[in-house]
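Quarterly update from the structural biology core.
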Amino acid sequence: CLVGWQRERVSERVSMASSGKVVEVATTAQFRAEVAGMGADSLFVVHFWANWCEPCKQMDEVFAALAETDYAGLPASQLKMLRVEAERDEVEDVAEEFEVEMVPHFVFLRGGQAVGTLEGADPRGLQEKVA
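Predicted structure, tokenized:
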């Protein structure tokens, strides 16, 4: 799904499986605060999505399941999942910073720096990058 910054926003929000490890990011300030608090060994997975994108809804399920999974060598305290609505005005600059041109789009951060990306609905690719 291509991100259309001029596209009329859809008011209906995607309902995602409840997960204490997935943080819904509503503003740029909130995003910056989350990332600023991460340790050098921590992994942040940022999921950029849009209401109108069916593949995003499918990846939401995968994302939520990954958030509940323990990975060997990575304590749960060092894995954080952020979910950002790509077309939301309050986080538009975050989407632009990571050059989000299509959704779903995932960015992987360590020590506040992007170390990888994944575009499109690729459940296996997402799992491999998190593991």
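Residues 54-67 form the longest helix (14 residues).
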